[in-house]
Specification:
The strands form 2 sheets. Strands 3-2-4-7-1-8-11-10-9 form a 9-stranded mixed beta sheet, with helices on both faces. Strands 5-6 form a two-stranded antiparallel sheet. By secondary structure, the chain is an alpha/beta fold. The N terminus is likely disordered. It is built from 14 helices and 11 strands. The protein is globular, with a radius of gyration of 19 Å. It folds into 2 domains: about 130 residues, Thiolase/Chalcone synthase (Peroxisomal Thiolase, Chain A, domain 1); about 230 residues, 3-Layer(aba) Sandwich (Peroxisomal Thiolase, Chain A, domain 1), CATH 3.40.47. A hairpin with a 2-residue loop joins strand 10 and strand 11.
């Protein structure tokens, strides 16, 4: 789609994300998604000092909330809201929730929005999610013997490797760096050190993917509050200022197999709205259900030219104290993927990073952070993509 068909995005006016909350993930849980949402609400109250009954907006992302709709949570938790949103974009839900809530805040339609993503993981949850994920999968993928994200991302990974000459060792460097970061994150599921040899020697899943190319489903929740600066200051809080964001769906539909995402169409606006460049970014959190998507984002978000991610990864240290701090929690590949909360993980960490509250994963001097999202995979591509830039004090 030509950029000339885009409207002119307007800068955000004094919008902040505050009170980042991460619940400790569990490999399996007997609690429903509603319990995890309630626990996240409790965390927001503790982090902000603002009672949840004062939140007049709710943005919710979950794959396992059914049979409840998002609006049912208002009665469950005694909330009276004047704005509500339900995100169904998988790993892009967090970016989308910020974009919609921010404009509603600017318009005065709402004052405090609780942005929550939560999912449970019973012993059979993941299989059930795959079985009912989409009509496309049921009609066009499963009858041919392929099923689930592993098969789809193996297809994308093979095509990307063939196009750009990328090797498994190149992907492995991403996974190894993220595992090193996870060792500093007390909430990460993966706590065993991993070498490149460990990565390469892991049992195969779907060629060319091995065990450590694939996220581990877990139960958990991520959350934050979005509000105007005047509201934040009234409550004596500090937060991350929203500088810019982009969102795009079904980008480059004529590409036979996805090797680029919607970020590539809007990346100039992402940085232009914020008045910064990729070189100014201190910390990056990409959506990382599989390492091939990380490489696509490095390129499409302007950190290196298309097809040169393997060299970029080789030339940089992606750990917390390295030259290019990336997925400082360990990302989903080592921290775990709590369903739809996987799309909020990087956002919550970016808020912490630019406000200097990331603790053991803090990047020294981080003031400008980028978080991206990607979601809703069909066989040959993911349909949703987005990114956001947050600034700390003085940005």
């Amino acid at each position: 789609m030509p950029l000339s068909r885009n409207g002119n995005r307007q800068p955000y006016n004094d919008i902040y994300a505050v009170a980042p909350v991460s619940l400790t993930y569990q490999r399996y849980s007997t609690q429903p998604a509603q319990w995890w949402i309630g626990a996240a609400l409790r965390g927001l109250v503790a982090a902000s000092g603002i009672p949840h009954t004062a939140y007049d907006g709710l943005s919710l992302a979950s794959f396992t909330l059914g049979p409840d709709p998002a609006i049912a949570m208002t009665q469950h938790f005694g909330m009276t809201t004047r704005w509500i949103d339900s995100m169904a974009m998988g790993g892009a839900s967090g970016i989308a929730s910020i974009r919609r809530a921010a404009r509603a805040l600017e318009a005065g339609d709402v004052d405090i929005v609780a942005c929550i993503a939560a999912d449970t993981n019973y012993t059979d949850t993941f299989r059930q999610l795959l079985a009912g994920f989409s009509r496309f999968s049921q009609d066009a993928v499963y009858p041919h013997g392929a099923g689930g994200a592993n098969a789809s991302f193996a297809h994308l990974t093979n095509a990307y490797m063939d196009r750009f000459g990328v090797t498994r060792e190149d992907f492995g460097r991403i996974c190894v760096a993220q595992r090193q970061n996870a060792l500093r994150n007390p909430r990460a599921i993966m706590k065993k050190p991993m070498s490149l040899d460990d990565y390469l020697g892991a049992r195969p899943i779907v060629d060319p993917l091995g065990l450590f190319d694939c996220v581990m489903p877990v139960a958990g929740a991520e959350a934050f509050l979005l509000m105007r600066g005047e509201t934040m200051r009234t409550h004596g809080l500090t937060g991350a200022r929203l500088l810019s964001s982009i969102e795009r769906h079904n980008a480059f539909p004529d590409d036979p197999v996805q090797y680029r995402g919607g970020w590539a169409l809007d990346v100039d606006e992402l940085y232009g709205m914020a008045g910064v460049s990729p070189d100014d970014v201190d910390v990056v959190q990409t959506y990382d259900d599989y390492p091939v998507i990380v490489m696509m984002q490095f390129e499409d978000l302007g950190f290196c030219p298309k097809g040169e991610s393997a060299r970029f990864v080789s030339d940089n240290d992606l750990t917390i104290d390295g030259s290019f701090p990336h997925n400082t929690t360990g990302g989903q590949l080592s921290a775990g993927q709590a369903g739809a909360a996987g799309g909020h993980l990087g956002i919550v960490e970016t808020i912490r990073q630019v406000t200097g509250s990331a603790g053991t994963t803090q990047v020294e001097g981080a003031r400008l952070g980028l978080a991206s999202g990607f979601g809703m995979i069909n066989y040959d591509r993911g349909l949703a993509s987005g990114a956001v830039l947050f600034g700390g004090e003085g940005i």
